[in-house]
Amino acid sequence: MTGQAEVAEQSVAIPDARESDGAHLEGPALPGFQQFSFGFQGACHCVYYAGDRSHPALLLMPEIAGLSPGLIYFAQRLVAARFQVYLPWLFGPFGRRAPLLNILRPCISREFAHLRAGRSAPVTSWLRALTQHISRNNRDSHVGAIGMCLTGGFAIPLIIDPLVPAAVAAQPSVPCSLLYAACGVHVPTKMSALNVNAEEVSQARARLASGEARMLAVRCRADRICPADKIERLRQEFPIGLTVQEYGEPTCRNSMGDRPHAIYTKEFRILRPDQVEHYARRAFDDLVQFFAPLRNEDSRIRGELLSPG
Prior knowledge:
alpha/beta
């Protein structure tokens, strides 16, 4: 009986959520994933999701490359690691990397304008509303969050939400210094910017200090797009509740000869089979371990997910 209830629960689609004037969006099919349309404050995006509904839910925010093969592969690995994964299609072409094109897109340019000004990007309100929608449709369970590159700093405003007990800031990079990324020319005003308004930083600090939430910051030591200064700023702002993981050496280059950056996506995807001890594999294992406490939280709720009715 329990097995039948579990199968039934997994087959239930999460409903669309639209404002009265919101449009219904339907994206291309993604094998192994379902999708729903989510609208909030005039913005509407498709959200892809997969995974056993009795497993912890994770909101996976895209990096500047967009909804790329590396991002999809990352989501699939998280599902295989026994998580539910919710992947919003926020920008860019579907199923291919387009970092330069995405930077030039008007919607991304508007987000960059807020980030450069030290204000939280408008999309963070949409993401928090999406988190609440995911929780409601999982019997009010908690939701973990992962931001990367462009969205790396979004872990800060999301961790304020009581529904989010754990969030990851992976290689947070915006606004980055192009001079530093290309040539190593240090630009102090940009190196440590967090791209979040001071009030939300203070609220996040208080929540982490209370022990109600945890945050993980991740970068490669050779990464110039996410400089060490930014991670050090995170340490200063969040002395309690923040764990920092840095991987590789400052001289590291990936198999394409580039400085490593996107550790969970591109860097993992281009690994050779013989690189079994590569730090990108260790980084993924560490990420799964970071979210492991979610499996013990909301146990009553997840038990209900497996019960009839």
